[in-house]
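**Protein fold record**
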Amino acid sequence: MRFTPALFLSLAVCCAAQPAAVPDNLNPPADATLLLQLYAIGDQVYLCDGTAWMLSHPDAKLFNSIAEQVGTHFAGPTWEYFDSSRVTGKAIANATPDPDSIPWLLVQAKDHLGDGLMQKVAFIQRLNTKGGKAPSTGCDAAHKGQETRSPYSADYLFYAIP
């Protein structure tokens, strides 16, 4: 990924801005405590099944509030922090505040790997998404198996339960 002034500006806007109103169904349990807030920039990867584009996996880099890459987000869905700890989760709720972008999510942790910060994660919110939707055309029998990437960005908030 090439760092440009626009990338740094988008990271600054992400992490300095007040979060948008979060729908109630996307809030973690009341006793959850925020561990970490990161900003993702990358792609949602889709495969053509012959009739429609199906999500294959995310492929994104995770940044902290000062634009340092501190992790990655990939298939599973899995988030890996720079300490090599990982959390894999399953979406349990979603909302679509922006019809031109992928949904916001509440994800529950299902599996952990490694000792580190991600070991403590119980819930993950994906908020403030921009882009990432599958194309509306271009998938038919002639393109079965073809891959396409849709750029996206999002805030990821990681929560622990005491």
